[in-house]
Amino acid sequence: MVNEYYTSEEIQEKITIRPMTLDRAIKIVSYALTYVPKPIAEKVLCDSIFIILDPLEKAFYLSKEVIDGRHIFIFPSIIYDENEYNKKYDVLHEVAHFHLKHVPT
Question: Which of 13, 30, 37, 72 has its CA 20 to 30 A from that of 7?
Answer without folding.
Answer: 72
